[in-house]
Write a structure and sequence with these properties.
CATH architecture of the domain at 1-61 and 308-342 in chain A: Orthogonal Bundle
Distance between the termini of chain A: 26 Å
Low-confidence stretches of chain A: none
CATH class of the domain at 1-61 and 308-342 in chain A: Mainly Alpha
Largest sheet of chain A: 7 strands, mixed
Strand content of chain A: 15-25%
Number of helices of chain A: 13
Number of strands of chain A: 12
Helix content of chain A: 40-55%
CATH superfamily of the domain at 1-61 and 308-342 in chain A: Malate/L-lactate/L-sulpholactate dehydrogenase, four-helix barrel
Structural class of chain A: alpha+beta
Oligomer: homodimer
Strand order of the largest sheet of chain A: 2-3-4-11-5-6-7
């Protein structure tokens, strides 16, 4: 086994990009997807880091994603900006739409970006964070695969449907949260299974709809929404707004379409952007300064702001590089040489 | 004690309106507030029904609300419509802004209504429901009073910050949810106190920030957000968007301003409206039909849709009238004759 290595963000991104190009992705998509993966690794979000490359390559190998569709922006001057991803991975579509979304939000106060027909590949926090850098607050939501039962139900219907929000903090890391509306991510159940540990109560039901703490039974059954009927309602709202309303697949439809959760799902995404300056215009107080007072009050009583662990990992990566084990480096080398089986 | 009585919606609303007029509210506000209270009573939401009249009268008696400010609509043609409530109760401001909001959403795809400087008096579900009747989906949020500690914190800072969503179901009761982002409403803790019952675990902390199941200790301490850090993040987002961003008070500022939770709080509200037709234009499938498939799948596995109990109570009221106890009727009579002490 090789020794551990540290890489710069750019070096890691380039290495991932080479793997994706070798798999046949166009320059545009290899670049955009590799940046998103490198960001996950850099920020210590291992489940969104290089671990994701294989799923990406599997999806390419099964021809369930376009390798080279060029995202197309449709802007009719309204509050809704659309990017047709043409069946390709989502990051390039987001990169195309984000500046237009931010500009429209600054113009109208509020705007939405819809990404249509994408193989959805990204955590939502890099996206809302990118929008805060453009000076707007952002709320992002999308369906996923039907693996979650509605509260009171027994079978998978909803996705883990992430919800992410970002608020700009000039001169500071933005306020960003991003979480699954299931009580746990599917990967966490998988980690319990591999470690031979029981799940906490309330995470899942088995295939008969009965509460279970057995990871295998949970994976064959359904996860549960966070926060009982409240989380279930929010997850349902995400299916409605970021599925039915935008004319892209719901989580149940996305699973039907591919028949497996091991490939990157094909659906859409909805991102709302708000211009605090526009909303606050003519009102007392500066919205950013008032938000800081709220954050200080949260921190002042010993509570944490979300994303702090990511920002800390990012700072460490900026000074010391991104640390990968010898095993991880060898895995990247293998993926570059041989790809994955379909 | 008098016998129980049933009243029609109109008769109950008229009776409440008379009480509010006697307290000095202008026709506009007496009408709008009485409709909201009668809706709560009609729909079996007792905590938003005639029970609320006293808090309303107390707020009037202490001169913490304008009795007659005429709400003013400000529309610059952007995606943000504003109604300045001028320190009066919120329902008249909502009634003024709602049709403009729905029309703008149909024009631009997405729009926001901001209500500024109101004594916020209404559950949010009548509002999102009214918007579904105008053909748009709606998401409403507002702060309240600082009575909830952030996850990991020890002291009240966030409000019970309600979040409500509505989706039109042509020919059917809309899909509507409305819940506090605290694990329980303050009224539920009060009910436990009166009944001499302990609270469930996880509802509250005492004044030292230690978990408690004692209702008195909880009322002197802080409630907790639903769903741990996820609910806490959503509640914080509500403070940011519907407080700091719109230039109205946060929950902490609202409590500071009045110094008590027994009066109706003075803050703003943010309501987003989405036109499903506009979002779905040119996309496969009808958004409303696709939403119905989702609702059928939820119901088909024995889970419930939110608000069904309210709709059931409403149907009963439509045929049999709204049932009030003799005690409740006597209370209404007393409020009409004598009002409340400040």
């Amino acid at each position: 086994m090789n020794d551990a290595t540290t890489l710069s963000f750019e070096a890691l991104a380039k290495r991932i990009e080479a793997i994706l190009r070798r798999a046949g992705l166009s320059d545009l998509h290899a670049g955009a997807v590799s940046r998103v993966i490198a960001v996950g690794e850099r920020d210590g979000a291992k489940s969104h880091g290089i671990y994701r490359i294989e799923g990406c390559l599997r999806t390419v190998a099964t021809a369930k994603v376009s390798k080279d569709a060029v995202p197309a922006l449709h802007d009719d001057g309204s509050a809704v900006i659309r990017v047709a991803a043409g069946g390709a991975f989502s990051p390039a579509a987001f990169e195309l739409g984000a500046p237009v979304l931010a500009a429209r939000a600054k113009d109208l106060g509020l705007a939405a970006l819809v990404i249509h027909d994408c193989a959805h590949f990204s955590a939502l926090w890099p996206e809302v964070e990118a929008l805060t850098e453009l000076g707007v607050a952002a709320l992002a939501l999308c369906p996923s695969y039907a693996t979650v039962a509605p509260a009171g139900g027994t079978r998978p219907l909803l996705g883990t449907n992430p919800l992410a929000f970002g608020w700009p903090r000039p001169g500071l890391d933005p306020y960003v949260f991003d979480f699954a509306t299931s009580v746990a991510a599917r990967g966490e159940i998988e980690l319990h299974r591999r470690a031979g540990r029981l799940l906490p109560e309330g995470w899942a039901v088995d295939a008969d709809g009965t509460a279970t703490t057995d990871p295998d039974a949970a994976l064959a059954g359904a996860m549960l929404p966070f926060g009982g009927h409240k989380g279930s309602a929010i997850s349902t709202m995400i299916e409605l707004l970021a599925g039915a309303m935008i004319g892209d697949l719901t989580s149940a439809e996305a699973l039907d379409a591919l028949g497996t959760t091991t490939l990157i799902p094909r659906h859409g995404e909805l991102i709302l952007a708000f211009s605090p300056e526009r909303f606050a215009a003519g009102r007392p107080g500066d919205p950013f300064a008032r938000a800081e007072a709220l954050f200080e009050a949260i921190l002042g009583q010993g509570a944490r702001l979300p994303s702090q662990r990511r920002y800390e990992a990012r700072r460490q990566a900026a000074t010391g590089g991104i640390a990968l084990t010898g095993e991880e480096i060898a895995h990247l080398d293998k993926l570059l040489e041989r790809g994955v089986d379909a």
